[in-house]
Specification:
The chain is α/β, with parallel strands linked by helices. It has one domain: Uracil-DNA glycosylase-like domain (Uracil-DNA Glycosylase, subunit E, 3-Layer(aba) Sandwich), CATH 3.40.470.10. The protein has ten helices and five strands; from the N terminus they run H-H-H-E-H-H-E-H-E-H-H-E-E-H-H. Strands 2-1-3-5-4 form a five-stranded mixed beta sheet, with helices on both faces. The relative contact order is 0.16.
């Protein structure tokens, strides 16, 4: 059985399949958690995933943004209005990573501009931070998943190199993952967000510190957890103030 047929068979059974990642690019959590993931879809693996070497990721901001704007690596390009690249100072000390664009973000081409974005701005303001002065904001995927659903594994994988290049260009002092999806993708784990909060991890070959907190959209649905989020924000503030 060839590799493609094997993958289709495993996916039909609902068995998870993961591709190995380039050495040195996976985040290294400072815990003992194991790595798992979600299988990519059959049609994406069969026909849409380009050879890794065929589309090198630009090393500069202008080239990277142009590559994202014209990207057609996954099915999300078919339903987007705009790609949502990122916003903030190019060498911000804090980089915040969310899940993916919603309807407002898709319409405007900017991350976190809806209700969740307003709450994120208030969260940053509470610790003396702003997307205009010292915080860069991006998402795991650059196009809106239809219906605001969670990005599929193959969609996140198609955008992974873009996000990693953004992280390399910004070189933040601290990365903050907003929500389970962003945290699990950056840390390459399936650990629940409740177990990831309150710990410090590292990402990439330079071991950039990374912390995890709840996504603003989750806090809008579950305001009872805002107190926990405030504890996370205080940890973030203390670290950035060191």
């Amino acid at each position: 059985m060839d590799e493609l047929r094997r993958r289709r068979y495993l996916q039909a059974l609902g068995i998870e399949v993961w591709e190995s990642r380039a050495k040195g690019m996976a985040a290294t959590p400072l815990t003992d958690d194991r790595v798992t993931g979600r299988a990519p879809s059959v049609d994406f693996v069969a026909s849409r995933l380009p050879p890794p070497a065929s589309r090198p990721v630009p090393q500069d901001w202008a080239g990277l943004q142009a590559a994202v704007a014209g990207c057609r690596k996954c099915r999300l390009c078919e339903t987007r209005t705009n790609t949502v690249f990122g916003v903030g100072p190019s060498h911000a000390p804090l980089m915040v990573v969310g899940e993916g664009p919603g309807a407002d973000e898709d319409a405007r081409g900017e991350p976190f501009v809806g209700r969740a974005g307003k709450l994120l701005d208030e969260m940053l303001k509470a610790i003396g931070r702003s997307r205009k002065t010292d915080t860069y904001i991006a998402n795991v995927v650059k196009c809106r998943p239809p219906g605001n659903r969670e990005p599929a594994a193959d969609e996140a994988e198609a955008c992974r190199a873009y996000l990693e290049q953004q992280l390399r260009l910004v070189k933040p002092k601290l990365i903050v993952a907003l929500g389970r999806v962003a945290a699990q993708r950056l840390l390459v784990t399936d650990t629940p967000i409740g177990r990831m909060r309150g710990q410090r991890y590292s990402w990439g070959p330079d071991a950039t510190p990374l912390m995890v907190t709840y996504h603003p959209a989750y806090l809008l649905r579950s305001p009872g957890d805002k107190a926990k989020s405030w504890e996370d924000l205080k940890r973030i503030h203390r670290y950035l103030s060191e």
